[in-house]
Automatic annotation (TrEMBL):
It comes from Eoetvoesiella caeni. This is NAD(P)-dependent dehydrogenase (Short-subunit alcohol dehydrogenase family). The keyword DNA damage does not apply. It comes from the Bacteria. Belongs to the short-chain dehydrogenases/reductases (SDR) family. One of its GO terms (molecular function) is oxidoreductase activity. InterPro entries: NAD(P)-bd_dom_sf, Sc_DH/Rdtase_CS, SDR_fam. CDD domains: SDR_c (cd05233).
Amino acid sequence: MNSTTSLSSAGILQGRRVLVTGASRGLGFEFANRIVQAGGSVVLADILEAEVRQAAARLNEQGFAAHALVFDQGDPESVTRCAEQAAALLGGLDGLVNNAAMTHSGGKTLEQLEIDVWDQVMRINVRGNWLMSRACLGALRASGNGSIVNLASDTPMWGAPNLLAYVASKGAIMSMTRSMARELGGDNITVNAVAPGLTLVEATEYVPQERHDLYENQRAIKRAQHPDDVSGAVTFLLSGLSRFVTGQVLAVNGGFVMH
């Protein structure tokens, strides 16, 4: 994170306690990093045990309040246990960032896509986000001003080809966000989604260069997208600055899709 972005969000999450899933690297780690830089405390949760513990240790070494939990978003019991442990470690929860997801369908047409891959993507990306949100509801209600931020994608907005399971799962996240916002508004819990464009992280290393070129050439801001381009939007949606914003999907992609 550069000094400009760090200063711009300093203090806006003071005292906020946030669980970030899929936080061992990439966007998830950047979100956790921005949260603590903005004054919050965080639990980083991931299925990658060594990586998530190292990620939390990196933040601890800088003097920030960060904890690591290992969980499997495909396992309902593991999800529930993670939510309970996160609330216990932080003394409650004010925010949840549903970032954990998988792709595994990239480069295949709808005819080539295997049924078991489709089912796995839906289990992790859609069911897993619902289960984690449900598991955190008690703590978020107790907060009195809880926030859920779901990670969608801009791919459903433009119909990205050869990525059908992932695109369908992220389209479901957008719809779930709106429905959850309607249900939880009475509890003073905001629910929003951030829809990044193609971002330079480990999870997109498989993406062919022509897809990167497509994004860069068609963006209003013609450059590659980095994790810290997305974290400001997530921080805003977790903060008191967005308490009257709910049920929204915010595209963060340099103007590739204007939603």
